[in-house]
Amino acid sequence: MISKEMVGASTVSIILSILMEGEDYGYEIIRKVKDYSGGKLEWSEPMLYPVLHRLEKNNFISSQWRILENGRKRKYYKITTEGQELLRSKKEEWTDMILMLAKMWNLDWKLS
Amino acid sequence: MRFDLEKAIKQWRSQLRKFKGFEDADIEELEDHLRSKIEEFNNQGKTDQEAFEMIISADYGDLQKLSSSYYQERVVSLSPWLLLNYLKIGWRSIRTTKLYFFINLFGLVIGLISFFYITAYLNNELNYDNFHENGNQIYRVNNLFDRASGKIYYPLIPPAFGPAIKDNFSEVEYAARMRYAYNVLMQHEDKSFYEDRVFFAEPDYLKMHSFEWLQGDEQSALKKLNTIILTKSTAVKYFGDSNPIGKVISYDGELNLTVVGIIADIPEKSHITFDFLISFESFKPGPGSLEPMTSWKWVGFLTYIQLKPNSNIPLLEEKLADLFSQNNNSKVNKGVKIELQSLPDIYLTSSHLSNPQGGLFKTNNQKNLVSLGIIALLILAISFFNYFNITAALIRTRSKEFGIRRLFGSTRKKVFTQMAMETLLVSGLSTMVGWVSLFIFSQYDLIILNQENVTVLLIASAIIITIFTLLSSVLFGGIFSAYPIMSLLSGKALSSARGRFSFGKIVLLFQFGISASLVLISLIVINQLNYFSQKELGYQSDGVLVSKFRSIEMHNRKDVFSEALLKNSAVSAVSFGPSLDGSSSGNPLRLNEWPEDEVIQTLIVKIFEDPDNFIGNIACELDFVMKRVFKDFHYQSLHHEIGPLALKIWLGPPRNVLIRYESENIIETLNSIENTWENVFADNAFPFDYQLLDDQISAMYAREKEFSMLLKIFTSLTIFIAVLGLFGLSSINIHQKTKPIAIRRVLGAEILQIGSFVSKKYLLIASLGIAISLPVSYFIAIEWLNNYAYRISLDGRFSVITIAVVLGITILTLGFQIYKVMTVNPAKILKDE
Lengths: 112, 833
Fold this sequence. Notes:
The complex is a heterodimer. Helix content of chain A is 56%, strand content 14%. By secondary structure, chain A is of the alpha+beta class. Chain B is an alpha+beta fold. Chain B is 54% helix and 13% strand. In chain B, the strands form three sheets. In chain B, strands 1, 2, 3, 4, 5, 6, 7, 8, 9, 10, 11, 12 and 13 form a 13-stranded mixed sheet that branches. Chain A binds chain B through residues 25-28, 31, 44-47, 49-50, 53-54, 57, 64-65, 72-75, and chain B through 25-26, 28-30, 32-33, 35-37, 40, 59-60, 66, 69-70, 72-74, 76-77, 79, 82, 407-409.
């Protein structure tokens, strides 16, 4: 299990990374995170939404309501160019961090 | 019992709603999440109930925490950036409806300016005499007489009464008598001016009041014979930059007064204003006066007293009345009352008192001020109603916009915010325009913007904008959140909301009512004032000039002067008399003691040829021979009824000359009278100075004129705002009815049928509004007319004119709209659809 602190620090990067694959809605984002982490990362699910709302408000992602065939409404989120910019800088931070730790622990990692 | 998923979700939703963190859109999003997860659990073979219970216990254990994290996001969400966005949307919707936006703005600006103006005016009027530290303990002693001729109220008492009050009552701390003087020639070396704001006062007067002392010894002030205190600007007027203390000013060439003190100019908001304060001892009753300073009959002295705190005022008033009656045994008084009038109340509650030449003290009519206050609120209400009505009508065209907003997750609160921002934009803009106009007005002295006024107006602006914004966001936001999205989208929601008694119609009714009411009341006020200026006074006041004699030498040459004047063909009569200052009767024409023949010629008072028929019982303490009987004439202002009056022949030297001139060329006549004056009194130092009797008379009605002018202006503005609103509203409604009108026209309807189709509703509401307001306004008008002893009779013509004006303006406005519709080719409209 991954600690709370780590989850908190990585949430924004993770959400933005997933949205880079294409627009998505909350539940699906959570499912994808589970897949990627092999079940090791678990979010308190409803807590995802305030984070999404904050990102949207700061213009890093945008949203749109769609009406599904069965009549239900669903909100889809999409990354904006500002969001892509933010992700780029987050990626650099994470890379530096991982490379540093890898060096310290003598792990031989190659980043593709 | 079977598990019902829908019911469970519904309960869950309503549970979430109890937390302020979740908005409708948040709940919808979470619901989608919940349903997706349940579906996944179902696929894994779990029942709805199992899935639901598992999810709820895992994810929604701590709703409070979840809600607060949502709430935090939302609080930040009302960021300036977002509000700016609302303003932007508001601006866009304004741009699409420019005409109505300007109608709204214009109406609000006029409403606000009127409100500001009246508020500033009232703020000035309501704060008189509050600069005296002990103001609440200071009282003016008034004498109220009940006589056969009616009740007469004076702000004056006899000269012996004041000292007696101070000696006999322990609760009286200070008491000061004052005597006024008008038209006094003050002289110092080459500087000489006629002065009106001159008072004699006892030392206690300065002790109880808080006038600002600038120079000289305050302790000994007003104590020595022939000493005088000046206000700062008066000192500069006579002495320039040099030290005025110790210098001498001559008073009408009779007294030489030494300047012993300088005080700051009397504040504007003081009921009594003076430039000169002379020690009371220096006052001597004029030549020919029948009463000494120990008199209990000469009701001619202002008297102010300061009482110890918590004194029993009604009891003291009774004791004072007893004291008065013991010393004054006049048979003409059926009853005597003493009124102690609190200093801060004097300005607004003195309309019952006579005020010689309107100059003894400043006063305003409380009723008129209250009416102006009500008008201010009505104008503000009308301009808000306009805004409401026009915006409500426009909003019907925006129901789709709001439907789409709701569809895309806009919440009730966001609709409120949107409406609030739009109103804020309009009301903020109009307040700004209002303030700019205020500053422009103040540049032309049309309004006084002192610090107090600005504070009051700033607070008023803030309150108005707040109420305005809240009210319209609740009213309009409420409209949109109350309807289902689909009915908003189809545009049906709002058209069905306008029922038989919709709020909009009531607002319109109210507007018509107020307009009609103001028209009627203004008509009556204007008529009453015209009646004043046209009423037969019983003598001819026009063509009479009044001037003052100031020295014994002048008195001695009065016959020479009279003869010389009568040689001029433009002068038809001359008469001389005692003081025009008026001691007790509150009128410019103090005729009580004038020689009769000359007066008859100068003033053209009518007489009865056979006076013997009028001999009856006249209560009088001296024996007089009756020579003539005059027909009734108005020797006082028309506020008062004509009472019994006897004219005594004046024995002392004359103080005034009345000259009747009959000429088209007034300037030439005045010049020739001045020449005569200078020839006859060549060696005297008194320049020719005059007043027209008509001017003195009209000064008595200055307050009424001011009130009537304000009433006329604000009634016109109110009607203008109401017409503006009607214009906007009918224009929107007719625009929305373009299609039905076009169909009717194609089917052969005439202009009258179209007219009645379009305007029936408005005319009905207008008529109802007028019908309701007329009785109310008549009631108010009667109340106002009761101020006057002589008043116009109220008849049906006022209602007829009011109905004609209000309906006429309504029909004109609607007619213009109908004309616009009729000039468009109906085929074109139908083709466009």
